[in-house]
Amino acid sequence: GSFPRQRPEYTDKDFAIVNDETYGDGLWVDLVENPERFTGYAGAGANAVWMSIYQDNCFGVAPYLQDTAGGWGSQLVNIDGKSMPFVQPPHKRRELAPFLENLAEEDRGVTLPADVPREYRVFYRAVSGLHASVSTHICAEYFNATSEQWEPNLGCFISRIGAFPDRLQNMYFNFVLLTRAIQKMEPYIASYDYTTGVVKDDRAVQRLIPKVLKAVRKAGLVFDDSELFLGSDGHELKAEFKENFRNISRIMDCTGCEKCRLWGKTQTLGLATALKALFSYPDRAFRGRFTSLDFKRNEVVALITTYFQFSRSLDAIEMFRGMYQNIVTDWRASQASQLPDK
């Protein structure tokens, strides 16, 4: 049987479909034991999910920025549609453009029409950053069929992320967005009851949450959310923003891969929770008794989990940058060894 529904799928303050254990049958899943990684999910259905998100829910901004989702959904092919085996890039530098150098600082010179609202750009960057982060995890834990080991696949990262500096920038943007949300929610997160009944896990949470909050506090103001949804059309823009983000929650349900759907929905909810904190409540709501707040347990868990996932993505970028630099170093050494003695 199903549990009776305790409330609508979402409230006016929600940026996502907020399902919890009161919404019919479900499963409890240990996210630590089921990490986000390569699953082999491929085919038309894999691409259709992201194509639908970009084409139907990003306010028409995506085409101005890049080639959006071509080939991104499938974990078995490159963006050109060709098969993507576990590969290492060539050792000759001239055959591998140095696009992993200073990736986060590069600018592709994209120019948006002047009349595109900033809120639409924020929406697109949030979606693109999520997509890039998911792809980074897939490439960082890619299954090498030859060695039968989980290994980082630099070729995968280059073809999906490294060649597109804006995708990396959008990952950094989401990390900043999440950091600002956690800063705002700090008193609420610090006092939240995370008890699971598993003593070891509860003690770990009690130890780690204060460390996370201390780190975000030290970061200072990283994102000024007060500059969005202003003016006479601010309310309308926010309503559109919410509805489109909720649509992404629904689209994630169409993912044919269970683990992909699990992580897609978790991180969509995590970002939506950050947006809800930033744009549905004033700062004062997170002080005192929190009586005006309406956050479900799965929203808080999704927020912290998504922050962790983006932290892992940024670590993976550094790992891949190091792998690339090692290739360049080896190439230079091999070239030097071939020079005639003077």
Outline the structure in words.
It is built from nine helices and two strands; from the N terminus they run H-H-H-E-E-H-H-H-H-H-H. With 342 residues, it is mainly alpha-helical. The longest helix has 41 residues, at 297-337.
Descriptors:
globular; 342 residues; 9 helices; two-stranded antiparallel ribbon; disordered N terminus; mainly alpha
Would you spell out the secondary-structure blueprint of this structure?
Blueprint: H1 44-57, H2 62-65, H3 118-140, E1 142-144, E2 149-151, H4 154-162, H5 165-191, H6 199-218, H7 234-252, H8 258-279, H9 297-337
Antiparallel strand pairs: 1-2
Structure, briefly:
It contains nine helices and two strands, in the order H-H-H-E-E-H-H-H-H-H-H. It has helices spanning 44-57, 62-65, 118-140, 154-162, 165-191, 199-218, 234-252, 258-279, 297-337; strands at residues 142-144, 149-151. The model is unreliable at 1-5, 63-81 and 83-110 (pLDDT under 50).
